[in-house]
């Protein structure tokens, strides 16, 4: 004989409770769209990814306690690494500032509780100076060649 189906659904295992977010991180990515990477940096809080804008401020709910923030930027490779350990009190909104370097050849970013100085400015100026010098040399060579051709054509 077969038994009739039960009239109630089988018991489901309990669902894990959502974490109790009782504090908040306010993370500001410094710079503007003309001087930073168009791709948003990556932030992890205790190894868990958290969203960040390419530029501007993002508020992130978090549990109170000690946390490790790790941030980096990426464009063809990872750069701008920065790490900060924070203690967040219940009900607190903790402001954190991340400054990616000026270009992706500089590996270190800056993170802290106040606005940070962006690193790699000297290297960026050096790269632009070399590009400018190379452009001036190429333009000079082209101009010199044109003057020589005009002089030869006139005589």
From TrEMBL:
Q: Which residues cross the membrane?
A: 127-154
Positions of the region Disordered?
A: 1-20
Where does the record place Pro residues bias? 1-17
Q: Which UniProt keywords apply?
A: Membrane, Transmembrane, Transmembrane helix
Species: Promicromonospora sukumoe
What is the protein name stated in its UniProt record? Uncharacterized protein
């Amino acid at each position: 004989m077969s038994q009739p189906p039960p009239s109630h659904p089988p018991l489901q295992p309990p669902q894990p409770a959502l974490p109790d977010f009782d504090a908040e991180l306010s993370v500001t990515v410094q710079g503007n769209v003309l001087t930073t990477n168009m791709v948003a940096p990556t932030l992890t809080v205790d190894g868990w990814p958290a969203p960040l804008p390419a530029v501007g401020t993002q508020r992130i709910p978090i549990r109170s306690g000690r946390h490790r923030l790790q941030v980096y930027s990426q464009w063809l490779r990872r750069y701008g690494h920065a790490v900060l350990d924070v203690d967040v009190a219940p009900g607190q909104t903790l402001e954190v500032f991340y400054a990616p370097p000026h270009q992706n050849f500089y590996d270190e970013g800056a993170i802290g509780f106040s606005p940070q100085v962006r690193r790699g400015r000297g290297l960026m100026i050096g790269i632009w100076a070399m590009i400018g010098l190379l452009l001036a040399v190429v333009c000079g060579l082209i101009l010199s060649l044109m003057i020589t051709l005009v002089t030869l054509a006139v005589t």
